[in-house]
């Protein structure tokens, strides 16, 4: 009973954090905007202020900052939830879309679609490319390291998938007709939600939502799975069905996210780990909590990089890696001590 | 009689070689100069063999002179040096005087200094014509222009393009905002500051490019009317040479139109 109460409280706290961070996110940027005036203006209460200036501010808010904030939430939630689901399915604490190469393969899919010119003819091709790339990676990962493989096997599989995705991406860029392709993609792969438009949001949101729904549907089975595959089967859960939900859901939400925002690493690793003790170590409950936590983390990182006074904005993936990589090392060390 | 079998390893060197050398002197150009999206000399370049800057290819031409760019791989240059092949390494001029000096330097190395003088005289003639078309700017405030290229790249203080803006009578927003070298112009700054003219380059528009998405962002369509946009073909200022005057002419004309509009409006 107490656990359920604590879980509810956790979700409330995380939701409040996401809302607060979202408002702070709207207030940060290169243009000096009076964010609350603008929000009131948006709600229709314009006070005689400088109209032209106000219009410009509203435009910056609606066309630049709101898409940026929404995309941060969407991508963060996707990564957090996908990380929690993969860790639940593989019963492996180091499974994370970035580390095991799912994001890298999604990037490869997006790059392929993009530089072949397919996405210029047919916009939806970009997220679909990302999703297919992510899907292939999750399938490969499951084939190589599914069914209770050791942590070592998982990481090795991830290294192989990542290396393959990196090499193929380089190959595609090598063959690209645009001499600037390399530079573009190097920056793009560092991940960013800056200067995106509502078009990007409409492009990936429906696909992402299907992904979230599939992962959410897998939650009860993931709880059962934490007791072992045999127990889960005897409780009446259809294991291949769960696998399909998690693999498909991860591919949909991570793939479409990567296609618009590039690779943002470590979110799916850090967030579920920090939240796991708070949900009574139940993988099913970890999913919604990690979605909120991931959204909060990406929003916070995106705020940090705008607050740091650098001439050129840092990339989002760089900031999450600065936090995530040491955390990853810490986890590796901790796991090693446990197995010794 | 200048050097024979001259090989160029750099797009900008290609253009200078085509402009200043005689066709008999040219042994090979890079593959880049044959791309009409990158170079206006693509047609003239078509007849010559291409190279991709590998030392083995270069040696096959038995060059008496190699023209290299500022960023040609240093391993290549060291090798050529060891093989006693004379190399002229071009710098990257950032203002008109340096451009002229480079034209003279390359023409002299090719044994044709008079060609450089002809090219320079023509450049000066075109600039004089612009000076006579100058307009009175009300309140002596020069129009502000911002270059916005794919990925938000802009031209900052001390660059050739900044110099071209200056020659066209424009103030560069990136300089006003004190952006660092090779800086990016944040989309938000661009929208908020509302420069008088938005300058874009047309290169890459036909090619698939992620970076292009930024240039196509709907917020730009909503804040910059077509009359405030100027498209400068990238071939004009990718390399320092007489083509840069074309960029100055295009920008100068846009500046005059803008000032005229302002006068009419007031």
Description:
The complex is a heterodimer of chains A (340) and B (266). Chain A is mainly alpha-helical and 340 residues long. Helices cover 77% and strands 0% of the residues of chain A. Chain A has one domain: ABC transporter involved in vitamin B12 uptake, BtuC (Orthogonal Bundle). Chain A contains 15 helices and no strands. The mean pLDDT of chain A is 87. In chain B, helix 5 runs antiparallel to helix 6 and helix 6 runs parallel beside helix 12. In chain B, helix 4 links the parallel strand 4 and strand 5. In chain B, the strands form two sheets. Chain B has a five-stranded parallel sheet, sandwiched between helices. A four-stranded parallel sheet of chain B has the order 7-6-8-9. Chain B folds into two domains: 115 residues, Rossmann fold; 127 residues, Rossmann fold (3-Layer(aba) Sandwich). Chain B has 266 residues and is an alpha/beta fold. Chains A and B meet through helix 3 and helix 8 of A and helix 9 and helix 11 of B.
> Overall mean pLDDT score of chain B?
88
List the total number of helices of chain A. Answer: 15
Order of helices and strands of chain B: EHEHEHEHEHHEHEHHEHHEH
Query: Can you tell me the number of structural domains of chain A?
Result: 1
Number of strands of chain B: 9
Largest interface: A-B, 36 and 28 residues
The total domain count of chain B is: 2
Mind describing the biggest β-sheet of chain A?
Answer: none
CA-based shape of chain B: elongated
For the record, the CATH architecture of the largest domain in chain B stands as 3-Layer(aba) Sandwich
Q: What's the arrangement of strands in the largest beta sheet of chain B?
A: 3-2-1-4-5
CATH topology of chain A: ABC transporter involved in vitamin B12 uptake, BtuC
Overall mean confidence score, pLDDT of chain A: 87
